[in-house]
């Protein structure tokens, strides 16, 4: 039997390893709690031992909701294996957060990382995606901006609100205290890690932990260089379910991670020899976006789901706090209603009654087209020379054409994220440095982002209206649209009916017409 004691600053912990996990007592004064770490068997990380407080959070309606929200949204309609959901991803992130925290604590006792710190980091990892809506990023990235223009809502905002709702509804404050958390500090700490917006050039603004523990904020969501356990899990998990090869090995990062001080700030750094491995991580991100997340058919299907949601919005009724009714787009304002909003809304629309309102039936017809594989037609795409150029709200899709801008990069727009990563050498594990540009291999990429403009047609008739295409080109030139877009329309638009282009100025002046769509930036 193996016994250990808790670290300084923690409640007294007595641990004994058993055949089923870690049996331990948390002793606070005269009270104590006896429990066993629960083991979860995961296809990615194997057997994961989770703290009982994490299990308490998992066993709530707010967290169980994540079982019904697919990790990759519409990608499942393209890759049959991509059926995994936010539930297992969140548990995986909590597990990796604990592994990285424990590795740093073991290698560098001087950092004064406590068991309470690690538990808080794990809770943040577990709850960081509580705020995702139906079909994950489709809801906050495509639907909400169109349903509620000007609303700056993002899923991280909902994660914070849902976390507060979860703790309150399930009366977890006392349970957290039993396991040694200091709620006046730790609740702020957890929420700051879920949605961190502090810039290192500013003074330290966080309340949960002091500046000398700034590195803890890089474990779950790293705003410095994008290397965090959230990506470690979803890269490995998505590649596994998509059937895509992954060359990045997060185990090596966990093995070689250390904390070093840079300009008064403590950062998580990695051995210099791991540069290739970390470069492979960002290349994996790019490949996943290109091959799956922003696959042209994925984007078409997600556009169709978004169109259906917009038509069905006011007809979806969700009961919230005080029996108040919310719509598909307003459920984000009430966490009780939002808890009931999952991917199941797709089936609800698909199976609506034949005598339902016309808009709801129109939404149903769009979803049936997805099921029957009668998808919007992809016409073509082109690349911009300047990858930062944005065409959002500049070009207008007429009749049944919609334009979309797809951005793909290594995670930091036009910059190489490796430039923001700190390395150390085996000869000096305390001094951190950035890679110098002269040290970069000549076979490494020099461009780290690109932007595509794609054209999608909602109709599938078989006529070839070349004369109307020419009229459309003239209209584009009259509007001073870039020549590249005119060319792509000339080359790619085939078998499409442009009959309604004779009165273009009339249609353009009325954006409320259903024949028009403003270009969306994904």
Automatic annotation (TrEMBL):
Organism: Dicentrarchus labrax
An example Gene Ontology biological process: regulation of innate immune response
InterPro entries: dGTPase-like (IPR050135), HD/PDEase_dom (IPR003607), HD_domain (IPR006674)
Swiss-Prot/TrEMBL keywords: Membrane, Transmembrane, Transmembrane helix
Residues annotated as domain HD: 86-235
GO molecular function: dGTPase activity
Family: Belongs to the SAMHD1 family.
GO cellular component: nucleus
Entry coiled-coil feature ranges: none
SMART domains in the cross-refs: HDc
Entry superkingdom: Eukaryota
Protein name: HD domain-containing protein
Segments passing through the bilayer: 20-40
